[in-house]
Specification:
Radius of gyration: 12 Å
Structural class: alpha+beta
Order of helices and strands: EEEEEH
Number of strands: 5
Strand order of the largest sheet: 1-2-3-4-5
Helix content: 25-40%
Largest sheet: 5 strands, antiparallel
Strand content: 25-35%
Number of helices: 1
Shape: globular
Length: 85
């Protein structure tokens, strides 16, 4: 699971053996948030555990600010995400 972005005390990771939809795992300490990164759409929180609400908000904002590059990293790791394209 490579860390594809670091900001403040957050690490944004993409698992090698993960599944669509494109998403990232944002880790801070022992907590994490799972956030979608669909191309051309708004990033959305899927789930979060062990993070304070302010850290969840910050994690989503970090992903929003890096979403295009994170999506490219997802495609580099997993290949095409939509077989019809």
């Amino acid at each position: 699971m490579p860390t594809v972005h670091r900001e403040e005390r957050f690490q944004v990771r993409i698992f090698y053996n993960d599944h669509p939809p494109p998403h990232v795992h944002v880790v801070k300490g022992s907590g994490y948030a799972k956030i979608t990164i669909p191309q051309g759409e708004i990033a959305r929180l899927i789930e979060a555990r062990g993070l304070a609400n302010r850290d969840i908000v910050r994690a989503v904002r970090i992903v929003e600010g890096q979403q295009e590059g994170l999506f490219r990293a997802w495609v580099a790791i997993h290949g095409k995400t939509d077989p019809d394209r």
